[in-house]
Amino acid sequence: MNFFLLKKSKIFLFLLLFLLIIDQLVKRQFILQDRAILNSGIAFGLFSGSGELILAISVVLVIFLLFFLKPSIIRGLGFVPVGLFAVGAISNLLDRFFWGAVVDYFTLPFFPSFNLADIALVSAAIWFLKKILWRKKN
């Protein structure tokens, strides 16, 4: 088994676990207060109503990321963005499993609702993109 996160520092793992727990606790609080926004689709509500398909794809992606991605590829991408991506994906996957949709709680005018897991996913995506573009320049 290639569970790369276990090989990294305890502080990094603690921070990732902390992000996951905080996101899940905040989501639970918003659900209990009936203030949560449920998103059955993916980013920006795309593909709403495809819950089972999105759940299945999410499970496959998380399993691939955690168990089958080679350490050399992870090192090349960077442990921080891979960790952020894993936390965001796992947190939103837990939402789909327990609530049938992703629970969003941040709302801004003229912008779709989102959550801490989404921030982690977008941060990881920007980091990946930066690394890819940087590599092509050099």
Write the layout of secondary structure elements.
Blueprint: H1 10-32, E1 37-39, H2 51-68, H3 71-77, H4 79-99, E2 102-104, E3 106-108, E4 111-114, H5 116-137
Helix pairs in contact: 1-4, 2-4, 4-5
Describe the protein's architecture and organization.
With 138 residues, this protein is mostly helical. The chain has one domain (10-137). Helix content is 66%, strand content 9%. It contains five helices and four strands; from the N terminus they run αβαααβββα. The strands form two sheets. Strands 1-2 form a two-stranded antiparallel sheet. A two-stranded antiparallel ribbon has the order 3-4. Helix 1 packs parallel to helix 4 (79-99) and helix 4 (79-99) packs antiparallel against helix 5. The termini are far apart. 22% of the residues are buried.
Number of discrete helical segments:
5
Overall strand count? 4
Helix content: 55-70%
| Count of folded domains | 1
Rg to the nearest angstrom? 16 Å
Give the SSE string: HEHHHEEEH
Provide a quick synopsis of the model.
The protein is 66% helix and 9% strand.
List keywords for this structure.
two-stranded antiparallel sheet, mainly alpha, 138 residues, single chain
